[in-house]
Amino acid sequence: MRTSVLWPVILGAAGIFAGAGLLRRPPAPADPPRLARTRPPSTPVREEVPARAPERPVASFTTPPPAPFWQGLGTRLETRSTADPEAYRQKMMSSTAEYLGLDPAGADEFRSVAVLSLAAIRDAWKVRDAEVLGLSEFLEAGERERREQEIQDRYEAAKRQASDRLVSLLGTTARHEEFRHRLGEWIDAVR
Questions:
Q1: Which of 42, 52, 88, 94 could form an SS bridge with 83, CB 3.0 to 4.6 Å?
Q2: pLDDT of 14 higher than 70
Q3: 136: left (phi over 0), alpha (psi -120 to 50) or beta
């Protein structure tokens, strides 16, 4: 009787050890890619490089590429405090007209509208500033915050209206679209 119990225990233990050994075995490698299976093992597999998109035609040498214009804008902004304000504004207008590819008549119109728009934004900022400074110091925090927000909203509306004058002059070229998208940055640099 003792042997009849011993064999099932030994076989059961062997089954447990065999099962544990199978569970510990590293997983089988995934199927190699189809191309690799068709090549002999001694042939090195070369990674395929995706095809390059065709080169775009080079822009005319008379118009600068977009990135330098916007980088130059930041550089000019750093020197604005030491430059003659009128000379600075004229340089900004000229480089912008060149960047946008405007003809002489279009450049003149752009400068005229830009000067008026920038003056309107400057005036709106002065009004905003005076209204904020004119708020009573005895206002409760919530009321002060509400009034400041109303003042800011009026300023933003005036700025948007002035900016829309410039936007109306823009076409649909890539540079005009980029200028439209970055108009606020340009206004901050020029005013």
A1: 88
A2: no
A3: beta
pTM: 0.60
- The 3-class SS string of the chain reads CHHHHHHHHHHHHHHHHHHHHHHHCCCCCCCCCHHHHHCCCCCCCCCCCCCCCCCCCCCCCCCCCHHHHHHHHHHHHHHHHHCCHHHHHHHHHHHHHHHHCCCHHHHHHHHHHHHHHHHHHHHHHHHHHHHHHCCCCCCCHHHHHHHHHHHHHHHHHHHHHHHHHHHCCCCCCHHHHHHHHCHHHHHHHHC
Both tokens of 65, joined, read 């590429």
**Mean pLDDT, range 137-165, rounded to an integer:** 95
Which residues fall within 8 angstroms of residue 65, CB to CB, at 6 or more apart?
59
Q: Given the structure tokens 């920038």, which residue do they identify?
A: 118
